[in-house]
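fold-stage: in
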Amino acid sequence: MPRCTALRIATAFIGVAAVVGLASATEPKLPAGLETALDEPALPSGLEPTSPEPQLPAGLKVVDEPEVSPGPVTEPKKPPEEAAEAPERAFELTGFWEVRGGARIQEDKNERRASIAETRLQLNLNKSISGVTFAAKADLVVDGLADRYGVNLNTGEGFIDPREANVSFSPASMVDVKAGRQILTWGTGDLVFINDLFPKDWISFLIGRDREYLKAPSDAAKLSIFTEWANLDIVYTPRFNADRFIDGRRISFFDPASGRIVGRDAIISVDRPAGWFDDDEWAARLYRNLSGYELALYAYDGFWKSPGGRDPVTGRATFPKLSAYGASIRGPLGKGIGNTEFDHIKRSHHDVF
């Protein structure tokens, strides 16, 4: 066969084969590894979807919970908020310790140069049992200027000064009772005591002790009654409690009887009422709030709290009988607070200084 004829036949055969291939064949084969006809590549061992879950590392295998052996059934522990309350403390004790010293900057021929030289430890004890509160407060004192070292509950002299020792309770929802040694105060005056006729410690105030020592303790019983209309306080002191007054031992003063300033050279000698239930005192306060104003009425029957008379026979200072009645009102006034307090007193005929 001539070469040209053979070439044409070969060409024709290739063309026919190409047409047949295009008509019958699918998409051309991809390079090795990319054929679409093959299944997706196998997942790494342990990740086949049909294979079981892979094994956990040693120590993390899930094991069945152990069976609980039979035994006594116990109640679960209560959460903290349901737990039983902690037992009451035996008592609450507070206090402070201080040292004070002072000296006069001007010479006083009737007094020592030092006005105060002391250290004191105050202890305050409180305890409540079944609605009854017990309170005690006392100062342990070392006084470098003391003339006397024996304990005197009236004057506060000595190594110990019991300032409180009382019991308080509420026999009814509208009634409070407090009995024993206590600090009493009422009225609206600030260091001006008009209707507050409870004992004061003027010596402490003038020689520089804390302001709390201005109020001296009373041995009394206090009844408080609370109503919707008004509140009532009644205080009964079975034996007269005088001020801790200036007598010349620490602070000099003008003596009208001698017409001059006296001090340690003329210490006052007093005749103090001291009979239980005979030389007693009564005090009362009726008060309420009305439209933002504090209204109060006061009454007192007892004795002048500092020496206010003199016995013409013995020459000793006395505490005249005293009755007092007063009132106070305090409330808003313009942009501030208004305060008015007044008192009417009636004293016995004892000679005055």
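fold-stage: in (second)
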Amino acid sequence: MKGGIKTGMIDPQIWRALAGILVFLGLWYLLTSVLALPRFKLIPDPVTVFKEWVSFEPVSGRSLFTREYYMDMAYSVARTLVAFVLATILGVSLGLFMGWNRTLFDFTFPLVELMRPMPPLSWIPLAVLILPGVELAVIYVTFIAAFFATVLNTLLGVFSIDRNYFLAAKCLGSKPRDIFFNVVVPGSLPFIFTGLQIAMGVSWMSLVAGEIISGQRGLGYAIYEGYSLFQYPQVVCYMFTLGILGYISSAGIRAVGRKLMAWEAGRRGV
């Protein structure tokens, strides 16, 4: 009886999430449409943005029912995925080996720490000069931002493993290769997936900056174009599009992490 009632109820977390969204939309409408404060006069209200987003004949030429909207989305998603996959493969590998091999750590860590604080935008001039075409430059800038976040979190994951696991594995006769794949890699997974979520977030942020400066298509380029042409509803529509895509991609990473780390949830009693 109780179980049936519980399964039929909506999770309170969903209600709280909906309440937060409604409060945000209410404040937005109040500041832009009702009070019309001086600094908010040019910002479109949520009703105007929604109408433009779902219009069959949008003023900006881009909406849910136009081909251009999905073309911009496809360009940005493709660039982000390429950069993120490269950052995952190279960043996780480097982080694991840096944590596993002290010599490699001493050799690479100062360089990583020197380059990591550099803003992704500072890489754009060099990327444009070195790489052929604009497309590779945008992908490279996106990759750089995700790469360092992945390396650092993976490295911290290796350092977080209890040293007793290594001693126990050696006492049982495990070879270094076995310890690496059976202790280091699984023990680092919680930190790795945390790093991947961070990397995905900074990938989207860096992508938009790269597209604004060097891109010719994509969500970031469309945001800058809308701003230049005073089409502010388009700017806000694309901002929310980026937020939705970022949320979906991060949720996907979390879902994969839960599948691969069921043992971690059991250990924590979740």
